[in-house]
Design goal:
By secondary structure, the chain is an alpha+beta fold. The protein has one domain. It contains one helix and six strands. It has a four-stranded antiparallel beta sheet with strand order 1-2-5-6.
Length: about 100
């Protein structure tokens, strides 16, 4: 049993969810018509999970342990809070510059 709980999934097997576009090469501009496949999964550890007899939880169960699991296809890494903050900042900058409709 995993201590991680998935928060976000992009997977071709999920109903109503479009899988990511398959990467072709760094010199090829992606298109919404390109083949899709693979998966992305983001998961965290809830504060109610104990470690060495300690729980990290407030009265509402909002707190989480400071590790985030990020999986793309079959590769998985664990990010700490500072790494997630850096990614959050860069993703926010990208969203601010990216039009909502693909040209």
């Amino acid at each position: 049993m995993s201590i991680y709980g998935s928060w976000f999934d992009l997977d071709e097997d999920l109903p109503g969810v479009q899988a990511p576009i398959i990467y072709q090469a760094s010199h090829i501009m992606p298109s919404d018509d390109d083949p899709r496949g693979g998966s992305v999964d983001v998961a965290g550890i809830g504060g109610f999970i104990t470690r060495d007899g300690r729980a990290l939880c407030d009265d509402y169960g909002r707190l989480v342990w400071p590790w985030l699991r990020l999986s793309v296809n079959d590769e998985t890494v664990i990010l700490d809070r500072a790494q997630v903050a850096g990614m959050h900042e860069k993703l926010g900058e990208w969203l601010d510059r990216c039009p909502e409709v693909t040209p």
